[in-house]
Each structure stands twice: as structure tokens, then as C-alpha cells.
Amino acid sequence: MGKVIIAGIVGVILGVAGPYYLFMGSYSVVPWGLVALALGFWCAKREALYAGAVYGFCLSFSFMVAGYSGIQSLVSRFPFFALLGVFGAVCGIALSATGYFLKVQYWTPRRTV
Question: Is residue 111 part of a domain?
Fold first, then answer.
């Protein structure tokens, strides 16, 4: 459970920082994806899915909130931001699952003597 909470905190931090490095263009999503892969590599099987979902939702939602500069109130945009957060959660699950399966496929644990 602790890793899932850490994933959410990292997602919020990267989401809030996101509008400040948008000068990178479409490459700005590369660090987000690498973190999601690392989460899958770091967590156990089911925990990787939960951590990826929480990370993706927190990242997407906080990115939208931090970058919002519209005329209408921010609270009125929360349902739409939450919907985009669900899309981010699906992407986070996919990337963290990929990281987990890469770990299982290529990581050979050291034998203890």
C-alpha cells in the first residue's frame, strides 16, 4: 500500500510540474512514461497495476488543474478533468504492467548462498 501512495505523490508532483516543461513538445510525456515503467519494475504484480492506476490518474488530473487558465471556474471543470484522469489511469496501468512484465522477463534474481 505504501508504494501506491508514493506513486500518487509522484504523479501529483510530475503533474504540477508538467506545465513548466511543455517547451519540450510531445517529448514532455517521455518522463511520465518512464516513471510508469519504473513503477511496474519496482512493484509486485497486482501492486504494479494499482500503483499505475493511481499514478496515471493523479498525474493527469493534477496536470489539468495546474495548467488550467480558463475563464470559467476551476470547479466546473473537475468532471472533465476526472474523465481525463481515468484515461491517464488506463495509460498508467498499461505502462506499469509493461514494466512489471519486463522485470519478470529479463530480471534474474541473485541467488543467495
Answer: no
31-55 pLDDT, tens digit each = 889 999 999 998 888 899 999 999 9
Only one residue has cell 512489471, namely 100
pTM exceeds 0.85 = yes
In a domain, 12, yes or no: yes
113 falls within a domain: no
Domain limits at 29?
Answer: 2-106
The CA distances from residue 54 to 30, 50, 64, 106, 112, in Å, are 18, 6, 15, 26, 34
* 8 Å CB contact between 23 and 69: no
Residue 71 lies in a domain: yes
- What pLDDT digit, counting tens, does each position of 65-78 carry? 988 888 888 888 89
The number of distinct structural domains making up the chain is: 1
At residue 4, the pLDDT reads 92
